[in-house]
Amino acid sequence: MAAGYAELLRTRHAARLLVGTLVGRLPNATAALAVVLFTRAEGGSYALAGALSAVYGLCTAVGQPLLGRAVDLWGQPRVMLPSAVLSALGMVLLAGVGIEPLWTAYAAMVVAGLFTPPLEGGLRALWPGVLKRPERVHAAYALDAVAQEVMFAVGPLLVTLSVAAWSERVALLVINVLGVVGALSVVVSPPSREWRSAPREAHWLGALRSSGMLVLIGSFFFVGLALGSIAVAAVAYADTHGGGMVSSYLLSALGVGALVGGVVYGAREWPGEPERRLRVLIGLLALGYLPLSLVPGVVGMTALTGLAGVFLAPALACAFIVVDRHAPRGTVTEAFSWLVTTFGVGAAVGTSVVGPAVELGGAAAGFAVAGGGGVAALAVMVAARRFLLPSGIRTGEGSGAPVAGGPAENDRNGAVEPGFRAGHQA
Fold it and tell me: For 344-365, how does the pLDDT look when each residue is reduced to its tens digit (9 = 90+)?
């Protein structure tokens, strides 16, 4: 298992791209915590801190697919680096001016969010050309999902250490300087400079004109909703089971489960079509969320959350492969960005929805929201499965008859030339 990942990382440029992307995404991964700490240090209320973080998150959700489309049109260096610098300057403005006047603080969040570079989608667009072989791309997507779990654990720790060593203002600046350095490391690499998207058909919907993409987006909105609700429900559970450290046990177990699942999933090549496999993984993910509403004792609950996390990273890794196959020609970075954005928006909605549920029914009701999100994600995949049919058996519009054809919609990994797809995409 370890040997397979080591071989992948020894591939030329692979380790640099992975590490550079993770470092470049630190500002986004730590923004909520860093902004809240800075706002409180400046004398602002939690309400203001939450509002600034919400503006940042909303603008990131808007900016990612738009910047992803720009990357597909003009290449990575011409979009990624300027956007990383502009995003960092937004945070520098907040750190320099503070929270007064308020309009300046909000403007800083708008700039920082809108121009957050789509490094995650960009990396996934690069993997096929860098790794060449489909089975390596499969493993890279799994490793990427695992590395995200590590980043979301290490990032807040880095912010906390920076605050302890210097101040909240310096922490904000350090994280964003690191983000620019990470983005620079990626865009000056040969794979990033040489990468070109396939020629695209001009269409205002871009990646969203693919019915398969819409199914994935719909399903992963609910996966994000489930994950966002678990974070709040864990705090509510801790309030009645021994205090704040209990919530950290649950969330750590969830992360460890995702790490283990992602590592195991990416260590082997799985048979069959990824569309069918994704449906099974989403079903297992939903099955893992449902028992959480039983809210047993701390040891049992920790074990349940660990099991609930096992299929998250595999589902994400498999979804990246399916996106790669269903994104319309020339829209792959935008398509990856849409999936990431929708997942994040779903998590934000889950965080807001679970609050009233906890007020009404306690932690059990909060975890029931997570279970409902998992079931809804599976329902979308099952109800719309005809739009994610594998190669050669897609059905015609309204007729139900099979349509001959090669790859699903955009099987770039099966293309003659890495990173480009054979055939025409209508």
Answer: 788 878 877 887 888 888 889 9
Whether the bond between 191 and the residue before it is cis, its omega within 30 degrees of 0, is no
- State the Cα–Cα distance between residues 330 and 304, nearest whole angstrom: 42
CB 278 within 8 A of CB 329: no
How is residue 67 written in tokens? Answer: 């910047």
Q: Are 203 and 339 in contact (CB under 8 A)?
A: no
Rounded-to-integer distance, Cα 196 and Cα 373, Å: 37
* Domains in the chain: boundaries: 1-196, 203-412
Copy the structure tokens of residue 416. 């003659």
Angle ∠(173,176,182) on CA atoms, nearest 5: 140
Helices (H) and strands (E) in the chain, counts: 16, 2
The pTM assigned to this predicted structure is 0.73
pLDDT tens digits, one per residue of 172-212: 999 999 999 999 999 999 999 988 876 656 555 667 778 88
Overall size of the chain counted in residues: 426
d(C-alpha 209, C-alpha 217), whole Å: 12
CATH classification for the domain delimited by 1-196, as one of 1.10.510.10, 1.10.260.40, 1.25.40.880, 1.20.1250.20:
1.20.1250.20
Domains 1-196 and 203-412 share a fold: yes
Instruction: Indicate the CATH number for domain 203-412.
Output: 1.20.1250.20
